[in-house]
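[job 0412] stage=complex_fold ligand=S-adenosylmethionine status=START
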Amino acid sequence: MQSEISVQKGNSQLIQTIQSEIRRKGCLTFARFMELALYDPRDGYYMTPHSQVTPAMETGRERIGWSGDFYTAPDVHPLLAKAIFKQIQEVDDLLHHPSELTILEMGGGKGLLARDILRECEMVAPEVLSRLSYLLVECSPAMRASQEHHLGEFLQKGLSIQWASSLSELETGQVTGVIFSNEFVDALPVHRVTVKDGSLKEVFVDCEGEGFGERMGPLSSDEISTYLKDGHVNLPEGYTTEIHLEALRWIGEVDRVLDKGIVLTIDYGHTVQDYYGSSRKNGTLLCYYRHTVSDQPYAHVGEQDITAHVNFSGLALAGERAGLSVAGFTNLMSFLLGLGAEEMLAGLEQESKELQSAIHLLRPNGMGETFKVLIQHKGIKAPSLMGLRYRPFFEGALLGGGL
Ligand SMILES: C[S@@+](CC[C@H](N)C(=O)[O-])C[C@H]1O[C@@H](n2cnc3c(N)ncnc32)[C@H](O)[C@@H]1O
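[job 0412] stage=complex_fold status=DONE, emitting structure tokens
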């Protein structure tokens, strides 16, 4: 069956690359389309040069930030960096101050969070810097260039800062410390499925004129039905949603690389019951182009971000199976308050712009409730962490019910 067509502008070279793959191999899964749109090595949205380091005329438009397509917490205020560093300090205590403490950041974007975490470390616990190894796992050379730029002050001081383009480059058990990410998992490719005439079908992407259209077909992999079975998810007729197989593979790799410590995942998303609930019958796929949100993945191909909300129950279950135990699940507001946001912001003028920016991260109708925080642990006994002091979810909401 063919759906309505969206023929829209985009990066014409990338459109040609995707169309020629379709002509060679047949329709693509949506996950493969999303992978090419975001991460094609030459023309993918995150991969094309767009760093602030060189003048805008010589490079593409900014991606993340006020002059880009969307903004993230570190664009708003360093409060999240301060809180993450406090959480890292607590884990450092639980690990008895190892001779090498690693902070591994996945998909660090422009490098603002890394810069602000290191600034906080330098200010409140400079003794930690000499034991610290900061490792950024970043697949995009353009993003890496921006990270190098923003971390210049620490690179000059000779701090141990390293990069890898994929977790697969790292050794098993290489990390003692914290593996964290902010808005990384939502950028991983997803499969899409729909229920039609009582049976589950996968959404495939086909060529359609100068752009792309959709076809429904049998599932490309048994992993999709296993994923839904594991979550005890029964989708009703007409329901369309995303399946996060890549996120499950990623958490397995995280487990391989972590020896002892925690995994801290911050992103917008839900527990499985909320994710596949009746209010999301069209799924959670969203695209960002110049701060305009749409559900049109075939528009602005290679020039817009494509994201899907995170199924945190799926991550938690896959983590448990791999060897990562759940320490807790909360939202961004509770995480920040638990780590002392109030004290961190004390002293700021009530009406100041800075306080208003920081409050955006806390407010329920800002980022405070939409963003969730999952903490998993390994090699340390059920830690009771400051970031998990307040939990707005019933015990078992994450792994209970279906999972
Ligand atoms: C939405 S941005 C994250 C923004 C950033 N964490 C922040 O707080 O501003 C997603 C980032 O993940 C990177 N990325 C996506 N998939 C990746 C992968 N498989 N391995 C490494 N980096 C990846 C992208 O290049 C980009 O830097």
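The chain has 16 helices and 16 strands.
[job 0412] exit 0
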